[in-house]
Amino acid sequence: MPQKKKEEPELLLVPFCDVVTVTMASLFMALLVVIDQSMKTPTIRNTPIAETVTNWPVYFECRANQVFPVNRVKLAEALQTTTNAVAKTPGGSNTLSSISGLGQLMMQDIGDEYYQIDTRYLLLGQMALLPRTNATGIKSAEVTNKFGTAIASFNRDNQYLVFLVRDDSFSVFRKARDIATRAGYRSGWEYIGRDEPLTFVGAFARIKSQ
């Protein structure tokens, strides 16, 4: 009985072109971020006398005269969940080490109710956060009543508060810091440019207590 001739493998051009398009677009966006970061002039910022602490930082952003919680643990979990989901799709294995997988990951909306992760920065080993425009934090008039409740569950011995302050929100920052101080928490702060994303390098990125 004659053997059936094996068919030649067929190259599906449309899916292949889609993968190439997504990959090239992702690499182009990443290249723009790398160029932007490399051309920035370092900013010299005077900070208060600071002391190194071993406590774990809890971050808050002061923006638009509101206080927003920056839950790095929740955001990291959202990134890991999405990475695992993308890795299971065709061409997505080993997501962060595969060009096509990374391209798919960069097209996802990852984050929580306050922030979206800017996936372009993943190539630099950084977690960068973009504020969601429709998010609402603790407003200045509500800080006295609500901020103390928001920090009540933290451990004063093992954690301290870090405020990332935009130039339009020093008033609400001072109110929140005073509440934290009266409640017995250490705190630190750093000025963040108006359009600057929040960036974290590694798991132990931190600002000293001030």
Strand content: 15-25%
**Computed CA radius of gyration, to the nearest angstrom:** 22 Å
Q: Which structural class fits the helix and strand makeup? A: alpha/beta
Q: Cα distance, first to last residue?
A: 86 Å
Strand order of the largest sheet: 5-2-1-6-7
Give the number of DSSP strands: 8
User: Helix proportion of residues, in percent?
Assistant: 25-40%
| General shape | elongated
Query: Count of helices?
Result: 5
Low-confidence stretches: none
Indicate the topology:
Layout: H1 13-39, E1 56-63, E2 66-70, H2 72-87, H3 99-106, E3 115-117, E4 126-131, E5 138-139, H4 143-151, E6 159-165, H5 170-182, E7 187-191, E8 198-201
Q: Your description of this structure?
A:
The chain has helices at 13-39, 72-87, 99-106, 143-151, 170-182; strands at residues 56-63, 66-70, 115-117, 126-131, 138-139, 159-165, 187-191, 198-201. The strands form 2 sheets. The chain has a 5-stranded mixed beta sheet with strand order 5-2-1-6-7, with helices on one face. A 3-stranded antiparallel beta sheet has the order 3-4-8, with helices on one face. The chain has 5 helices and 8 strands; from the N terminus they run αββααβββαβαββ. Helix 1 (13-39) crosses helix 3 (99-106). The N and C termini lie far apart (86 Å). The radius of gyration is 22 Å and the shape is elongated. It has a domain at 56-201. By secondary structure, the chain is α/β, with parallel strands linked by helices.
